Amino acid sequence: GEDVEQSLFLSVREGDSSVINCTYTDSSSTYLYWYKQEPGAGLQLLTYIFSNMDMKQDQRLTVLLNKKDKHLSLRIADTQTGDSAIYFCAESPLTGGFKTIFGAGTRLFVKA
Amino acid sequence: EAQVTQNPRYLITVTGKKLTVTCSQNMNHEYMSWYRQDPGLGLRQIYYSMNVEVTDKGDVPEGYKVSRKEKRNFPLILESPSPNQTSLYFCASSPLYQTGQQETQYFGPGTRLLVL
C-alpha cells in the first residue's frame, strides 16, 4: 500500500545546511510536497515538485527528486533558528482515490 | 483574508458524548479533508470531500462521520467518542486541478481533543 517514510529527528548548527530525506512508495504520485509545522500551529506548505522534475529551487530551499528510487529530499541552506520545526513529506497518488499521504514528520533542531 | 477556520480549538469531553468539530473555508475550494495527528504517526487522513454531497473515507475513518451540505463547510462528527480518539485534528481545503487531483492544501489551526 501507500507509505511515506522519514527519519524522525535531525540536528544541525546554525548556518549549516540541513537535508531532510523522504521515501515514498506510490510511483503514480504526480505531486510531492514539503510542509512545515511550527509549534502549536497548523501545516504550512513550503514547496512542491511535479514528478516529471528532478529538482526545484526556491530561495534557500532545494528539492531533489529521484523517481527511480522514490526518494525525495529537502535541503535548507544557511539554516536559521527560525527553521526549527517539524517537516512533513507528502505524496498525492493518482491511484487509490484522491488522498494525500503524509510521512510521520522530521523534527529539525537548529543549535545556535 | 483567505483562511480555514476550525471550532473549537480545544475540547475536553467524556466517552460517549456526541461532539462536532466545525470547519469552514472562504476560498471556494472544492476539496476538503480531515486529518488527525498523533506523535510518531504524522497526519492520517480521516475523510475527504471532492465537492458538495461527495465524501469518501481516508485511511482511518472508523468512529467518525462527515457531511458536506455546503461548499464552505465540512464538519467532523464523533457520534460516540472514545479515548483513542484523543488527538490533534486538522481540517484542510484545496482547489482541484482539471485532472481531479487536489492542489496544495491550506490547513486550519487545529483542534486539540481530549476524550476522558
Q: Termini separation of chain B (Å)?
A: 36 Å
Main β-sheet description of chain A: 6 strands, mixed
Determine the structural class of chain B based on helices, strands and strand pairing: mainly beta
How is the main sheet of chain B built? 7 strands, mixed
The helix count of chain B comes to 0
Global morphology of chain A? globular
Strand content of chain A: over 45%
Helix segment tally of chain A: 0
The total beta strand count of chain A reads 11
Question: Poorly predicted ranges of chain A (pLDDT <50, ≥5 residues)?
Answer: none
Question: Would you identify the regions of chain B where 5 or more consecutive residues have pLDDT less than 50?
Answer: none
Key phrases:
heterodimer; A: 112 residues; five-stranded antiparallel sheet; globular; B: 116 residues; mainly beta; four-stranded antiparallel sheet
Report what the structure shows.
The complex is a heterodimer of chains A (112) and B (116). With 112 residues, chain A is mainly beta. Chain A has no helices and eleven strands. Chain A has strands at residues 4-6, 9-13, 18-24, 31-37, 43-50, 55-58, 61-66, 71-76, 85-92, 101-102, 106-111. In chain A, strands 2, 4, 5, 9, 10 and 11 form a six-stranded mixed sheet that branches. A five-stranded antiparallel sheet of chain A has the order 1-3-8-7-6, with no helix packed on it. The model of chain A has no long low-confidence stretch (mean pLDDT 89). Chain B is an all-beta fold. Chain B has no helices and eleven strands. In chain B, strands 2, 4, 5, 6, 9, 10 and 11 form a seven-stranded mixed sheet that branches. In chain B, strands 1-3-8-7 form a four-stranded antiparallel sheet, with no helix packed on it. Chain B is globular, with a radius of gyration of 14 Å. The model of chain B has no long low-confidence stretch (mean pLDDT 92).
